[in-house]
């Protein structure tokens, strides 16, 4: 199993990406195809410790900038590092790709170069929020701004299997993000989605609210990409605010500094539970192979964890399990439709 890593994507690329990939290869033994400008990457690898047999450099002539249009790797920069990552996966040289670069470009490459699973109209980005029960899977967190009811039902299917295989939750409880628990509350979309969710056959518990994300009352929360992305960015900002406030309070007196030194292991444990760098990149569920899209500010630790998550994804064969379940649901729908048509045919 090999992972294609976009070494040129991200705010701190290629330094942070190469360092994270080197750690994943050296510490975890993960074979990596490192994609980017060969002379630049070889210099960075030398700084990390020299030749690493688990890393193969794949040259690319171009880079898609963070502010460039998502369509760039398809029209203008076909030899970009992010495009080549997708091609390596499509050809079978790699089983998954990881990028902390241009999110829109990553989505375009995943959907058009690697390809979507049959029956999945809109692949979705999933992330795991910390909770007392270990974690809550939320999707979509940014891949689709406008979604239809059937799209959110597909998100539920994919989130269900992600929670099962990655978080080890046998029967995930699935909730629909809304502004109240009552079925009558919410937007036109959430009201329409409610019945679609019931048709999945999963453990659908109904509407949930923003407070349920961190309470652990459900295992999977489904929403459109606009709501999910606002939720994700708000949570990241809140964690940063809390960390800054805690540092200010703990540095005010010698007593608080002493208390911090005694409680430092607990504070470090807390930081790891809420730090996105510990979770790594978000998987794009619904494509034919693994595709992980990381935070633009990913540091080496985040890159290493992203590569680890991509290996877990591939070992769980999650994309094929999603494909099989989506096909099964469509088959059930076809049978129900045929039954209704037969019942509606007037008898002589």
Structural class: alpha/beta
Number of helices: 12
Strand order of the largest sheet: 3-2-1-4-11-10-5-6-9-7-8
Mean pLDDT: 84
Shape: globular
Main sheet specs: 11 strands, mixed
| CA radius of gyration | 22 Å
How far apart the termini lie comes to 62 Å
CATH superfamily of the domain at 1-116 and 287-316: Isopropylmalate Dehydrogenase
CATH class of the domain at 1-116 and 287-316: Alpha Beta
Care to describe what's here?
- The N and C termini lie far apart (62 Å).
- The model has no long low-confidence stretch (mean pLDDT 84).
- The chain has a domain at 1-116 and 287-316: Isopropylmalate Dehydrogenase (3-Layer(aba) Sandwich).
- Strands 3-2-1-4-11-10-5-6-9-7-8 form an 11-stranded mixed beta sheet, with helices on both faces.
- The protein has helices at 15-28, 38-48, 72-75, 81-90, 103-115, 149-166, 188-198, 225-250, 254-274, 276-279, 300-315, 318-344, and strands at residues 3-6, 32-36, 55-59, 96-99, 124-129, 136-139, 173-177, 203-208, 220-222, 282-285, 290-293.
- It is globular.
- By secondary structure, the chain is of the alpha/beta class.
């Amino acid at each position: 199993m090999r992972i294609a890593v976009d070494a040129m994507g991200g705010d701190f690329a290629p330094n942070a990406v190469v360092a994270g990939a080197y750690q994943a290869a050296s510490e975890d033994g993960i074979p990596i195809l490192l994609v980017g400008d060969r002379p630049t990457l070889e210099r960075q690898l030398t700084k990390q410790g020299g030749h690493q047999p688990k890393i193969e450099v794949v040259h690319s002539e171009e880079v898609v900038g963070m502010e460039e249009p998502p369509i760039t790797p398809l029209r203008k920069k076909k030899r970009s590092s992010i495009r080549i990552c997708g091609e390596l996966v499509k050809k079978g040289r790699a089983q998954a790709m990881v990028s902390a670069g241009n999110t829109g470009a990553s989505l375009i490459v995943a959907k058009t170069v690697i390809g979507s699973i049959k029956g999945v109209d809109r692949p979705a980005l999933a992330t795991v929020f910390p909770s007392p029960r270990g974690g809550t899977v939320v999707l979509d967190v940014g891949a689709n701004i406008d979604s239809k009811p059937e799209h959110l039902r597909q998100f539920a299917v994919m989130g269900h299997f992600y929670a099962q295989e990655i978080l080890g939750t046998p029967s995930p409880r699935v909730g629909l993000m809304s502004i109240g628990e009552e079925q009558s509350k919410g937007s036109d979309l959430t009201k329409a989605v409610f019945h679609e969710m019931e048709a999945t056959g999963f453990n659908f518990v109904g509407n949930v609210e923003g407070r349920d994300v961190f309470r652990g009352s459900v295992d999977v929360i489904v929403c459109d990409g606009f709501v999910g992305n606002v939720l994700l960015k708000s949570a990241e900002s809140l964690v940063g605010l809390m960390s800054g406030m805690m540092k200010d309070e703990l540095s005010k007196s010698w007593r608080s500094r002493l208390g911090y030194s005694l409680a430092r292991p607990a504070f470090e444990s807390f930081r790891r539970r809420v730090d996105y760098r510990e979770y790594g990149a978000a998987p794009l569920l619904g494509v034919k192979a693994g595709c992980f899209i990381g935070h633009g500010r990913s540091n080496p630790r985040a890159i290493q964890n992203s590569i680890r998550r991509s290996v877990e994804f591939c070992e769980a064969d999650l994309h094929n399990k999603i494909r099989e379940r989506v096909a099964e649901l469509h088959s059930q729908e076809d049978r129900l439709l045929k039954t209704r048509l037969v019942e509606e045919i007037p008898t002589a």
